[in-house]
Write a structure and sequence with these properties.
Length: 192
């Protein structure tokens, strides 16, 4: 599994370091074929595993394929739309794997794990939205600045709420005064 991740990391680095020019249709098709072959090989490695380890492996393989395809599309057409899709694909892949890893747990630790995964996902998605707003090519500089400020404010609110939900979930493992103090501290810390 880690060998596959290393291969994919080298592949991604190669893609990013290669020519900044658009790919020809033949090059793009060759890359698609290679990505699909790597995905099939990674899925094949997962077959020898059992239980949740197999599920995690499959999520990782699927996530790597989606990210590689999004990177390929970005390389072929370096538009802001494709940059945003790439960032979203990375966030979604990380979230799917993190959520699947939570299945090894049970009870409150599992709930906390899921909330932490969700908070990380929200943070990554919101960072992508802010980056997209920053990269917009508005003709009016003041309008662009306002759009970026709005995106940042909305992102901060969503991230703060997701982190609050995770902190509040940690408090559920406690009881009585300790739980009340924990929830009050989380509310204060995340301005809820």
């Amino acid at each position: 599994m880690q060998f596959t991740q290393k291969i994919l990391s080298v592949f991604v680095a190669t893609l990013m370091a290669s020519s900044a020019f658009a790919l020809t249709p033949a090059e793009k098709n060759a890359e698609k074929t290679r990505i699909e072959a790597e995905y099939k090989a990674a899925k094949q490695q997962c077959k020898s595993m059992k239980g949740n380890a197999k599920d995690v492996c499959e999520k990782q393989a699927s996530g790597h394929e989606k990210v590689a395809k999004a990177e390929l599309n970005f390389r072929a057409d370096g538009s802001e739309s494709n940059r945003h899709k790439l960032a979203k694909a990375k966030a979604d892949a990380d979230y799917d794997v993190a959520k699947e890893k939570c299945d090894d747990l049970s009870g409150n630790p599992k709930d906390v794990c899921v909330k932490d995964a969700k908070a990380a996902h929200v943070k990554a998605l919101e960072a992508a939205k802010v980056a997209e707003a920053r990269m917009e090519t508005n003709t009016n500089a003041a309008s662009k600045k306002a759009d970026v400020a709005d995106a940042r404010q909305e992102a901060a609110e969503k991230v703060r709420d997701a982190e609050y939900q995770a902190a509040k979930e940690r408090c559920d493992a406690m009881s009585g005064n300790a739980k009340d103090a924990c929830v009050a501290d989380a509310k204060r810390k995340f301005a809820q």
